[in-house]
Amino acid sequence: MPLRIRKLPVFRGYPVPFFVDYLENGEPEFRAMDPSKYRRCHREGLCWVCGEPLGKYLAFVIGPMCAVNRITSELPNHRECAEWSVKACPFLSMPKARYRDAGRPDGFKEPTGVCLDRNPGVALIWITRSYSLFPAQHGNAGYLVNLGYPEEILAFCEGRKATHEEIMHSIDTGIPLLRDASINAGEPAESLVELNKKYDEVKVLIERVA
After folding, report:
1. What is the pLDDT of residue 97?
2. CA distance 23 to 30
3. pTM of the predicted model, to two decimals?
């Protein structure tokens, strides 16, 4: 566990990431993001997980579909915080895990953007020097992240280094869902052409996954 993670508050044996929102009873709701912390992380250049200042390299924890369209909803982390997350988070480290819908607090909102209802089985760490925010057109009001070109990409499955076959299986099984989401959202036909182009681009990037 990185030193930055050891500094975080602990709830029932689990470190509570910086971005987590809290319920009225004072307990953390690990499935919910605190909007004020989102703004702070972006404005002050803070790590999404530990809340400490970032350096020039920004590590985004994403699914393979986010690598295809280079869009995500969460802000960057330190590399070591990102690696700890993909190994410690049950959803990211266990391919059969699902997000819990039961017991959601009052006022709970779905994440910004179009979310695919699946566990991709593979978690990527997209390391870049840049990103930008843009207003989301679908889902709840908010912002999404345009990922900068990757300096390095790491891939994990079940808490270990993912194989090339596992990464491509996750991408190939997710692409049809991404196409369906584009069609259902009423996006123009050109969007599907662009998606196919991005698919070809990400296959080249995956060849050099560390």
Report:
1. 47
2. 10
3. 0.85
